[in-house]
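User: Modeling request: complex.
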Amino acid sequence: MGKGFEGLSVRHLLVLSVALNVGLFLKLAYEREVNFGTEQIFHGFCAEEEPHQREISLFSSSSMAANAEKASNYFHPSSWSASSIDELDDDGRIINLDQWNSGGPTASTQAGHISDDIYINHHDLTLNVSLPPPPRVGSNISGDPTMYERYWQQAGDKTTVVISGWQSMSYFSDVRNLCWFLEPEFAKEVIRLHNIVGNAITEGRHIVVGTGSTQLFQAALYALSSYGANEPISIVSATPYYSFYRQVVEYMKSGLYQWAGDASSFNEDKPYIELITSPNNPDGFMRQPIVNRTGGMLVHDFAYYWPQYTPITSPADHDIMLFTVSKSTGHAGMRIGWAVVKDEDVAKRMTKFIELNSIGVSKDSQLRAAKILQAVSDSSEHGGDVEEGRNFFEVNYHLIAERWNQLREAVKQSGLFSTPAFPAAFCNYSNRTFRTQPAFAWLKCEGKIDDCESFLRGHKILTRSGKHFGVSPQYVRISMLDRDSNYHLFIKRLRGMRYNLE
Amino acid sequence: MGKGFEGLSVRHLLVLSVALNVGLFLKLAYEREVNFGTEQIFHGFCAEEEPHQREISLFSSSSMAANAEKASNYFHPSSWSASSIDELDDDGRIINLDQWNSGGPTASTQAGHISDDIYINHHDLTLNVSLPPPPRVGSNISGDPTMYERYWQQAGDKTTVVISGWQSMSYFSDVRNLCWFLEPEFAKEVIRLHNIVGNAITEGRHIVVGTGSTQLFQAALYALSSYGANEPISIVSATPYYSFYRQVVEYMKSGLYQWAGDASSFNEDKPYIELITSPNNPDGFMRQPIVNRTGGMLVHDFAYYWPQYTPITSPADHDIMLFTVSKSTGHAGMRIGWAVVKDEDVAKRMTKFIELNSIGVSKDSQLRAAKILQAVSDSSEHGGDVEEGRNFFEVNYHLIAERWNQLREAVKQSGLFSTPAFPAAFCNYSNRTFRTQPAFAWLKCEGKIDDCESFLRGHKILTRSGKHFGVSPQYVRISMLDRDSNYHLFIKRLRGMRYNLE
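Assistant: Request completed. Predicted assembly structure:
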């Protein structure tokens, strides 16, 4: 009787437990159902995306060969050997090095603005290079950072964000903060990451969040120019400068500021704002202020000042420092950037700009960015509980190194181009000495090729001409951050490229 | 032996089953961990928010009494009876009707801009009304729509969005679309919702997404003015107009356009752009173009043209129509708006503006907005599988109706104010005749009270003065969309308000 009774109650418990398991399985399946749904959206987009985008990247310094070799071993199975690239099928499609390369407002709609744009018809990617390409809806996007997808796919669920319908409905994030639309969680992760990488001073600074660093750039101009005089303040930047800056300065015909061109030739005795991008876009060099006078204000764009691109020699310490997830983590679609600002009044005015421009910044994107930055920090913290082989900066440093190495070899093989030679420096974050390996390759056509963009277009490779950066058309800019498949196809073509005198 | 053996194996199975239970619980807890984390941010904010925000709403037409009674029954247990409001404890705190009411750029920083702003010190909400309040970081947010939280909390998990770390990384959404950063899923839900509600023609139109309708408003001005002449095009709007518009037009000192004030007094023989908000902010009336001449272009802001606010008499059919989730679903923090645009070139130029302004719009917010709009559509589709008592528009229509009824009663009781009398109209969506019940109450102080804002401030109720809308300071604007607790406390105070001649 005793054993029978005991057996019966255990059976009951077992039945209950199994029923509970069934319920938990169903609940877990539901929790993941929506995730699958949104994944489908993503994969659907990827499938469309492939035929549209191609990219190349080039490199010159031979000292990277050893690093690239290590990189090849490091992130198996993503390494591509020279022979595997040669085996690629080339279907003769157009490779777009600059993705939606256009100079901004079209000539027909913005008289007086940048007029010589490069167009491609979205709906028909066949390109007859003897005719000017047909006009299209332009855009000016520099380097879709889809190279980073691989890392984040491998990172798995730890960066998944779940947002309920009732969350983040209010306009307001932290009403006690100067930047009232800044999500505290996001600010916390920004500061943590800067402390880990050591690429910016944050102590005593104000964080302002923006819809990408592009919006923050405009906020900075607004904040600095409003203190100014009765005439628009001059905005300068040393050539070659990020072409998009000029368009952003000019498109509103603002009375607050005006584009005044090359910083190196600016010698007017009046207030100015100098824009410094370091590493620079397009050529990749580290930059210092050029205009050496009083009365000037500086805006630093540190989009690329991260250890996968360049040695972190010291924490940046400037009045206004701009960063973006687009280039640090690769999440361009999130539209999140941040500014580290020294002066409180400047931070207030930048906040005011964003209030008037878009009444703040998406809370959803900030929450997601916080999650992503946290994952980057967790993966890369010295002395932290770092998963083997998953340090975000290390993984992507090696990936970029390999790409530069492959392109350098291809350039050698072709004999038609050159790329900048970067000085080596010691990186305090990764404890290695290396040369900058920028997100863009600044390629120069040598010899008889005067117009590099045209030459490459003749090979169905679309690039962005140096003239958009205020320099000679012998230069072109090429993004290094596209997906592997695009990049490798370009390498293949580059190797076989020869200059034909016809 | 048999029973003993049988008992032993059942026990083993039980142990295994319980172990599985534990594992599944942990997994489910993890899946929800991130959700809880973001909820904590939200609830933490709510806890801070409560002491900071109070709001009132007022109403006049007695014909709404019956509807309000029905509304009280409809969405139990959210109804508040007159006696339950009287029983509220009033701790004498400041009720902010306008939440962060400020007129935009502060006088000290923007000479020549709107100078007479109302300030409150974030860090110290005690207010001495005999002294001007201390300046603070201003903002100009009209009506944080937190009233909608309740509906979305009750909606549960169907509106939960899950975004993985590798999703939506690219700048691009659909590269074949004119608006290349527009998420197709979001566009689909926009069109579906407009078709269900019948409040806008979408056939043959272009959808442009923006970081809130504020950004789209600027995109529209950019798109329309660039075709213009050598001088800035005039922007007009009939008073009382949405005060924020003027600040948005002026803050960049754009050479493309300029604020030209009241539409009713505009009689210059040159191109102009007229802004029409309908229902209007602040007074709630439906609007038509005022300037009746050729050479004009119209921008329609239909933020409030939804059936919880006003009868849908016909699908809006204009060249540029702006909408926002902030006021339709209550998700202000998402920063999502959309424009329905007739002309392709205008849509292209609006797209170009947003490209230059912020290189597109957050993909995360678009995905979330798609989910929310889908839930609204699912809940409100005639003939669809609609859950009883969960039609989004019905639930919130009744909620707003009750609020207006309560405030009307309170106004009667006080005898110091009046509110607009709205004409009744038949709503084709909800098949009922009713009067507009706007998101803002446009309150007028009667009798000896010349400055309504000051009078109410003396009762520790902060409102937005009519002078910010281009009319007499006898008027104030009050948001109807705050949380229940804030709103009810204001009702209580309003009832007891009397004019003291001291």
